Model the fold of this input.
Amino acid sequence: MAYTTLTDAIEAVSEAQKITADWGNSVKNLLNALRTYAQELTPMQIAKVADETVNNSATLQNDNEFSWTLAASTTYRLTGQLLVSSNATADFKMGWTYPTSTTISYSVLGYNTSDSFQNTHVDQTTVPGFNGGGHGAINSLDTIGFDGLIVTSTTSGTLQLQWAQNTANASNTIVKANSFISLLKVA
Done:
């Protein structure tokens, strides 16, 4: 296109720069939105890096590693595998602390305190959580798997795994390294 005056040419260049700047801002906004979306789809995973031991205590205690910050009004998928070593007298129990009005519903797959393999549904709707019953550990390494949903209300806060011996016993109950829990935001 031919411009008849220098002013026309300067105005055309200025308009082209505005269009380029607007396009650049649109691309930046799109990339930022994609980054945010990808972060929301990334599971919040923790794998235990060290063994943790409880001896002679049936009082639930906070796990040293399994803790997450939950957003308000959000639904998460909860999955995990705990590698637990305990004797048959002490066994193992677990529970959670979580934000007010949060609901947790999940299934636990593992040995019960009678050393029978079972799949147990757990529906937990009050703070600070339940003892979880005992999960038998039959004098060796036991895997306790779980899968379910966590739904927060209008309160954000911390989700914390707690565990202990089901019956206090002067022996070691250990949640082993490489146990893992994953939370994925689904709504």
